[in-house]
């Protein structure tokens, strides 16, 4: 709980500090690094969704998820995480190592994808992606069922992927520290740096998957019943 509050506090502090720095014209390293990373992530969103307007609406959520996951992942690398216990229960535990938290983040991501799809196509048209008349389009109805099941599989994959990597990282550091013994202060720093890199990668993967799922929801595909060929409609997100 304590480490989770620290993670929330660091994310809020970073955003407020960068916002104040930008207004004052600061050229500090933290401000410049955050701006540089923000511009890269925003550019990635624009490339995926194909709409600058939609990208700017999606950026606050997707980029916040990136920083939140990365910072909390990095906190799990601290030496106090895991070894310090009270009654056999760790006193410090990263939020990203809690399956409840990763599952909640995945729910936020998938709900956002559905909301953007509904805003783009409308409630009933979005539901038409999953539920079609089998008497008019049997193959389309079957594909709709598969797509509906895929939404839940994406939700599960998002949560378990992040949780598994954080948990594996904590186990790795614990094993290296135990096996190294007195040499742990020399061996652990290398693995900690590696875990910092993995944390940034996992945050970026979660960020990109969120953007991709939103992009998939804002693009409409229909099947021609007689020819069986697919026609991809123009993205309405650019005007929506």
Polypeptide structure, described:
- With 240 residues, this protein is mainly alpha-helical.
- The chain has one domain (2-238).
- 72% of the residues lie in helices and 4% in strands.
- It has seven helices and four strands.
- It has helices at 2-24, 29-49, 52-75, 99-121, 123-127, 138-180, 184-217; strands at 85-86, 89-90, 221-223, 230-232.
- Strands 1-2 form a two-stranded antiparallel sheet. The protein has a two-stranded antiparallel sheet with strand order 3-4.
- A hairpin with a 2-residue loop joins strand 1 (85-86) and strand 2 (89-90).
- The longest helix has 43 residues, at 138-180.
- It is globular and about 70 Å long.
- The relative contact order is 0.14.
- The model is unreliable at 222-240 (pLDDT under 50).
Question: Which features characterize this protein?
Answer:
single chain; 240 residues; mainly alpha; two-stranded antiparallel ribbon; 7 helices; 4 strands; 72% helix; globular; disordered C terminus
Query: How do the strands of the widest beta sheet line up side by side?
Result: 1-2
The first-to-last residue Cα distance is: 40 Å
The total number of structural domains is 1
Low-confidence stretches: 222-240
Q: What is the total tally of β strands?
A: 4
Largest sheet data: 2 strands, antiparallel
What's the helical proportion of residues? over 70%
Overall geometry comes to globular
Number of helices: 7
Q: Averaged pLDDT, please?
A: 79
